[in-house]
Write a structure and sequence with these properties.
The complex is a heterodimer of chains A (252) and B (529).
Chain A: H1 2-11, E1 32-33, E2 36-37, H2 42-48, E3 54-57, E4 60-63, E5 84-85, E6 92-93, E7 113-119, H3 125-132, E8 145-147, E9 156-160, H4 168-177, E10 183-187, H5 189-193, E11 215-217, H6 224-234
Parallel strand pairs in A: 7-8, 7-9, 9-10, 10-11
Antiparallel strand pairs in A: 1-5, 2-4, 3-4, 6-11
Chain B: H1 3-14, E1 18-23, E2 28-33, H2 35-48, E3 51-60, E4 64-73, E5 80-88, E6 93-95, H3 97-100, H4 107-117, E7 120-122, H5 150-155, E8 175-179, E9 191-196, E10 201-207, H6 215-219, H7 224-233, H8 239-254, H9 260-288, H10 292-313, E11 322-323, E12 326-327, H11 333-357, H12 361-367, H13 375-380, H14 385-389, H15 397-400, H16 421-445, E13 460-468, E14 471-479, E15 485-491, H17 493-505, H18 513-520, H19 524-528
Parallel strand pairs in B: 2-5, 6-7
Antiparallel strand pairs in B: 1-2, 3-4, 4-5, 8-9, 9-10, 11-12, 13-14, 14-15
Classes of the chains: A alpha/beta (252), B alpha+beta (529).
Chain lengths: 252, 529
């Protein structure tokens, strides 16, 4: 078995510097469309979006990131593509997030956080990106994040998927079984808005209809770094993204 | 056996009872027969003439049912046989070919059709409580029917209040160990019931469809390009394969000829996805055996392949590139060459990982002779993909029913005989190598040219098939006069392979369960849809 020990040491440290430095490797994020000034074809652009993530706003196009499913129709096959946000710090505080002054999750315990992951109808991609957080490139343990199988030990509930009818009971039971204080992080367009499944009669328009959500992570799927950002936001170690705002110079 | 010989045999056996209609362009022999002949005809195709069962597609027409049983020549030079049985809408009883013709592979197809359409299969012993859980819905809710009123169904919920799991073991002291739908660390939502009297699992039950999003219902009425969003996103670890199968069905209906460059790029992307998915499956197997360094090494490879995909296609799971008629964007040849280098580097690392694993006795002990599926079983259940090929079935649609020009590529279809967890792992490693070979050939054959041809909408129906990373997938699409989807049915590899999973999980100790599960590389999202 010594071969494994030697192999492990020889491989060296591969973990990203994030959050202390930016990760610049290629292929770590699909990016997101950014609000863009487009006077001429804004209406056409809005019509191209299949999930109504785009809306016309004062001389341009505003983006509702909770709905974007990465279809790339606003950049491929168009004369003037939308500007592209190539980052990954996308997580924001949910509008209905609880007040949390002085809660211990923001204080002494914020470097030892146990996370329970629930699949509420996910397509497999979000879950796969959550799995990557445990591989050496992201190594969430170094930041004090641990996946736990049981809700009884969990501080954070990480939910992926739109919230299918058959998962409602299980999801609620997991939430109720968690001790307080607790946070809910909803990751992925499906968990935020239902994504492409929003019209389905057996899907919620996101898990916010089923649980009080604290932090929202856009993306379809959000790349591992975006989920990591969401977890850091949930325990107050990173500020929420400013990205989730309107067109430059307008309010929405 | 070719089509004319098959036609002779069918006509000799059933005369006027079964009429063959040959579509030479698509290589499909459509056999129309009555309900009385159906079970016998299907049984002969499956058991005597060596056809594999692909799936059952139910369609509700204006006045009649059409039940289409799709068979394909899996290990021979035969093509597609569609057995179609029709009946007036008021008559909802059909023979169960799972029971009457002993085609076990049709078991779950019949259960699904009964649950979603209310079509009854005579002789089937386990109808009900499948897609629609009895503890969530009353019987009689038929969501795939045209006249289904979703709002009314949601208002009037009368679930079975005293639902209890099914039990087979009657011994004294027998109990059920329930697992899921939320279990372990990062897992999909599936429920298992393991029946035991102590140490070994005697009988296991798998309860799926916790993630049912009614994708096929959702697709109805949408334009092809919008339904494609669903095809890509219902099981996104193999998004490209499913999107491709959908696009191929639409292109077959509309008679679109995909340009050569787009075909090669599609091959490249499909094989890149297979390589990445296999690396992910290997990582899960290493993780399940708790071999930490191997788990980390496999995790590095998977993430590197995700980055290669992201750099090449703009999306780590290849979303948004496919379009009916080709690709939505061209990929620069230089970027393809870089992706090839990434794939080759990943395969070199996988080779090293495999060498190390094959001399780690503690690892091999957990996999050898564990979760075995015998070749007979694999055939009876019409299993697909690496699971089938590890059990001696040399089935691969890229060979048996070539598409995208796969016949011009030089690659092997790895097959193992033991059918255990270790055989499945070896098949995954061997297929990953073949994928890199195919990518290399695709990149060197690339020539400049267009990547998309406009699709002129047409009414009709067709089957699109693809050898997805987890095995054969069959997408049936029907478009109406306006070019909108009126029926979409995705028969997925996980739907075929989950059906046999309980056999692998029985007669083993509890602690082998996660290992057996990981070696099957099953996706609940792909099954549930």
């Amino acid at each position: 078995m010594s071969q494994w020990v030697i192999k492990g040491i020889r491989t060296g440290i591969r973990s990203t510097q994030y959050p202390s430095a930016e990760e610049r490797a290629a292929g770590v994020t699909p990016g997101l469309p950014a609000a863009t000034m487009l006077e001429r074809d804004a209406a056409d652009m809005v019509a191209r979006c299949p999930t109504r993530a785009l809306a016309q706003a004062g001389g341009g196009v505003a983006v509702d990131y909770r709905r974007c499913v990465h279809c790339f129709r606003c950049v491929r096959g168009v004369q003037r593509p939308l500007a592209w946000h190539a980052g990954y710090e996308w997580a924001g505080r949910a509008a209905a997030a609880r007040p949390r002054d002085g809660e211990p999750l923001d204080g002494p315990f914020r470097r030892s956080i146990h996370i329970v992951v629930v699949d509420a109808g996910d397509c497999g991609a979000c879950l796969n990106e959550v799995r990557q957080l445990n591989n050496p490139y992201y190594n969430m343990h170094r930041l004090g994040f641990f996946i736990t199988p049981t809700p009884r030990h969990a501080d954070v509930l990480l939910v992926v998927g739109p919230g299918t009818d058959h998962m409602r009971v299980a999801l609620r039971k997991v939430y109720d079984a968690m001790p307080t204080p607790k946070r809910v992080v909803a990751a992925g367009a499906c968990a935020l808005s239902g994504g492409v499944f929003a019209e389905s009669f057996v899907c919620a328009h996101g898990v916010g209809e089923l649980l009080p959500v604290d932090v929202e992570v856009p993306g379809n799927p959000p790349p591992p770094l975006a989920i990591l950002h969401g977890l850091l936001v949930a325990v107050g170690r990173k500020p929420p993204a400013a990205l989730l705002s309107a067109l430059p110079g307008t309010t929405r | 056996m070719d089509h004319s010989r098959l036609k002779e045999l069918i006509e000799a056996a059933w005369g006027e009872q079964a009429r063959c209609r040959l579509d030479t362009a698509r290589g499909v022999n459509e056999v129309t027969c009555g309900r009385a002949t159906l079970a016998q005809l299907c049984g002969r195709l499956f058991h005597e003439w060596g056809f594999a069962f692909a799936g059952l597609i139910v369609e509700e027409g204006a006045s009649e049912w059409s039940l289409r049983y799709v068979f394909y020549g899996a290990e021979q030079d035969a093509r597609w046989v569609h057995v179609v049985a029709a009946a007036p809408l008021a008559e909802t009883v059909f023979p169960s070919i799972a029971v009457q013709a002993r085609i076990f592979a049709a078991d779950w197809h019949e259960r699904e059709a009964e649950d979603l359409y209310g079509v009854h299969f005579d002789g089937h012993p386990r109808l009900g409580d499948f897609v629609l859980h009895d503890d969530a819905w009353q019987e009689g809710v038929q969501p795939m029917r045209r006249g289904f009123d979703a709002a009314a169904a949601m208002r009037d919920r009368r679930p079975v209040a005293d639902w209890r799991p099914r039990r087979a073991v009657k011994e004294s002291g027998a109990f059920i160990l329930p697992i899921g739908p939320k279990f372990s660390g990062v897992t999909e939502s599936v429920h298992f019931q393991l029946e035991t009297v102590g140490e070994d699992v005697i009988r296991s039950w798998t309860r799926l469809f916790f993630k049912w999003r009614a994708v096929e219902k959702l697709a109805e009425g949408k334009e092809a390009q919008d339904a494609l969003l669903l095809a890509e996103r219902f099981a996104a670890t193999t998004a490209f394969a499913h999107g491709l199968a959908f696009c191929r069905a639409v292109e077959a209906i509309c008679g679109t000829d995909v340009p050569a460059r787009a075909r090669l790029l599609r091959v490249l992307l499909a094989e890149l996805e297979r390589l990445r998915q296999h690396a992910g499956a290997i990582q899960e197997i290493c993780e399940s055996t708790a071999l930490v360094v191997a788990n980390s090494q496999a995790g590095l490879i998977e993430e590197e392949l995700l980055r290669v995909s992201g750099e090449l296609a703009g999306h780590r799971y290849l979303f948004g590139l496919l379009a009916p008629g080709g690709l939505a964007a061209d990929l620069p040849t230089g970027a393809c060459a870089r992706a090839l280098q990434g794939a080759q580097a990943a395969v070199a690392k996988l080779d090293e990982l495999e060498r190390r694993l094959t001399v780690s006795s503690s690892f091999l002990d957990r996999l050898e002779e564990v979760g075995a599926i015998w070749p007979r079983t694999a055939k009876a259940y019409s299993l697909v993909g690496p699971v089938a090929r590890a059990s001696g079935l040399a089935r691969d649609l890229r060979r048996a029913q070539p598409y995208l020009g796969y016949e011009a590529f030089d690659f092997d279809v790895p097959v193992e005989q033991e059918g255990d967890g270790y055989a499945r792992l070896r098949v995954l490693f061997a297929e990953a190598r073949q994928s890199a070979r195919i990518i290399g050939q695709a990149v060197s054959a690339l020539q400049e040219g267009e990547v998309h041809r406009p699709v002129s909408p047409a009414a009709g129906a067709a089957l699109g098939w693809v050898e997805a990373p987890r095995g054969a997938t069959f997408h049936w699409v029907r478009l109406d006069e306006r070019g909108r989807v009126s029926r979409y049915r995705a028969v997925t590899p996980s739907f075929a392979n989950w059906h046999s999973f309980h056999l692998g999980a029985e007669k083993f100790a509890f602690q082998d369960f996660p290992i057996i599960l990981s070696t099957f590389d099953l996706s609940a999202a792909e099954n549930d849809r």
